Amino acid sequence: MTDPTRTRPRPHRLPRSSSPDPGAARPVAVPGSAVLDEAHLGDIEGALGTIRIGDSGARRTLGARLLTLLAIVGPGIIVMVGDNDAGGVWTYSQAGLDYGLSLLWTLPLLIPVLVVNQEMVVRLGAVTGVGHARLINERFGRFWGAFSVGDLFLLNFLTIVTEFIGVSLALGYFGLSSYVSVPLAAVALIGMTVTGSFRRWERFMLFFVAANFLVIPLVVFSHPHLGPVVHGFVVPGIEGGVNSTAVLLVIAIVGTTVAPWQLFFQQSNIVDKRIVPRWINYERADTVIGSLVTVLGASLLMITVAFAFRHHPTLAAHVVNAGGIASGLGRLLGHGAGALYAIVLLNASIIGGAAVTLATSYAVGDMFGMRHSLHRGFAEAKQFYASFSGLVVLAAAIVLIPHAPLGLITVSVQALAGVLLPSATVFLLLLCNDAAVLGPWVNRPWLNAVAGFIVAVLVALSLVLMATTVFSNLDVHLLLAGLGAVIVVGAIVAVVAVVRARPGAGVETEEVPASPRETWRMPPLALLERPRWSRGRTAAMFTLRGYLVLAVILLLVKAIQLGTAHH
Asked: pLDDT at position 3, please?
């Protein structure tokens, strides 16, 4: 068997020359850098401001820094709020419906996971100038690239389907048929994206981000009490005890809040917005703000549903999807509350659909060398926009199939994202410890330790799901105690494996130039030798891949069991 990770000589590739055909699919390489498309270089044209390409002035006053932050804001907050999508709204609502406030404590714990993962993506995007899919493909080979991006395509497509499920349920509350609402939403998604203006697209998206704050008046309708809310945040526990169904929901909460598509979206969106290392700290701030807004929205949704349904178990038992939540809120709290929830669900579906579909189209452009920039009009990037439109149309068509178990599909997709997240995080860690890629921007040891711990926890959660699905009478508390004891060991092993890879795990690489961090950019990928993996690392990666395949199969078994139980 051929080792897919071995180092092989890579011929020097000359920069591609510009084609006279404005619709040509092949991008134009920018000499001296890894950037494929010249549309990814130039002024930062953000929704809330502009920064010129040659701007080197110091930001000495608070006002100047705030204006710069406004110009940079976008990729971080959009990727975070975009993950509070239709699946997120239903998952948080189901947690409040089935477990009250007892799962609130999971949400603040996700803030460091969000920030750690996405901060690494921020550096990769700004320093390399290329998307996540292309980096994986170039640094690890097509074998691993196909696995990683193949997972992304499948998961993203299913996620886009759930966004149209959300549209159908949201507008169904107002009596609009899905055969009208879903096509209208599809047209709107395509229309706001295929404009040829990054700034216009970002303004659309920030409008939907602002609409996310409608959860604040929504929670007021439920008349929450501070004491139980504080208890839910600070005291870990699961109402009714730990079982495989509860673990499935916890994994779904993780998967809907920290999803693999976020890595691909934010990195490519940073590249498309033309953010360079000089502005990394501002983009980090954008990401932190987004994580706080996301967890706030998720918490308020869980609190609203928990208080609204707490004395109505019979009504709660008949809720099977987010549309049922809206109807229930309308009955219990008044039509205004139901309508507001439906609007929140619709808004979440639109921003999620736009972000997830764009993440997929960015990855397609990376993998197949197509022009993929929102700065380009349709005539200049036909294949990019065609892939976006095709995904939207196909996902919308699937939702119109009668009698599909919409609620079950939605939760299952979020859980699938949680199961696949460890694999995506491992590739992210490897890239962020590759000195040829990030130079002086590689991970610090403490960050590797934190990220390794996160991977260990995610794998442990999926292990619990697997074990309780196969052995239904298993003592979940005992299993959690045992896994908790080995998580630290797993984290240490992961960190050691990553640190040993620096700067190239056995590859003789040229010394990184001693230049200021703010100006250091990754050289053209064609000039970098691919890192060589040891046999141990190769075996570990194959083991992880096999384990995740098994975990996905067992997750589907659990989903089918739940679907059968509801019928």
From this structure: 46
Q: Among 9-18, 316-325, 490-499, which range has the highest average pLDDT?
A: 316-325
End-to-end CA distance of the chain: 47
User: Distance between alpha carbon 345 and the CA centroid of its chain, in Å?
Assistant: 18
Burial of 385 (0-12, 13-18, 19+ CB in 10 A): buried
Confidence of residue 474 (pLDDT cuts 50, 70, 90): low
DSSP code per residue over 450-485: HHHHHHHHHHHHHHHHHHHHH-TT--HHHHHHHHHH
pLDDT digits (tens, 9 = 90+) for 367-380: 888 889 999 999 99
Strand, coil or helix: what is 222? coil
For tokens 């295929």, the residue is 194
Q: Which helix (H) or strand (E) holds 373?
A: none
Is 324 in a helix, a strand, or coil? helix
Instruction: Residue 109: name the closest of 297, 236, 225, 229 by CA.
Output: 236
Helix (H) or strand (E) holding 45: strand 44-46
The one-letter amino acid at 178: S
d(CA 366, CA 372): 8
Could you say which DSSP state residue 34 is in?
S
* Cα→Cα distances 542→3, 143, 519, 535, 538, Å: 11, 11, 37, 11, 6
Strands 44-46 and 49-51: antiparallel
Do 428 and 117 form a contact (C-beta atoms < 8 A)? yes
- Contact between residue 402 and residue 538 where contact means Cβ atoms under 8 Å apart: no
Calculated CA dihedral for residues 131, 207, 286, 294, nearest 10 degrees: -100
Give one word for 165, left, alpha or beta, with left for phi > 0 and alpha for psi -120 to 50.
alpha
Nearest-angstrom CA–CA distance, 8 and 17: 26
Note the CATH architecture for domain 38-120+150-508+515-566.
Answer: Up-down Bundle (1.20)
Cα–Cα distance, 476 to 464 (Å, whole number)? 7
The torsion region of residue 196 among left (phi > 0), alpha (psi -120 to 50) and beta comes to: left
Scan for tokens 């690890």, then name that residue: 140
* Contacts of 209 by beta carbon, 8 Å cutoff, 6+ apart: 77, 78, 81, 293, 351
Amino acid, res. 477: H
> Phi-psi bin for 371: left (phi > 0), alpha (psi -120 to 50), beta?
beta
> Contact 100/225 with Cβ under 8 angstroms?
no
Q: In the chain, what are the domain boundaries?
A: 38-120+150-508+515-566
Polymer length in residues for the chain? 567
Copy the structure tokens of residue 501: 């890879």
**Whole-number percent of the chain with pLDDT over 90:** 47
Contact 507, 530 (CB under 8 A): yes
Q: Which helix (H) or strand (E) holds 522?
A: none
| Residue 39 tokens, joined | 């549309």
Q: Which of 18, 31, 24, 37 is nearest to 362 (CA)?
A: 37
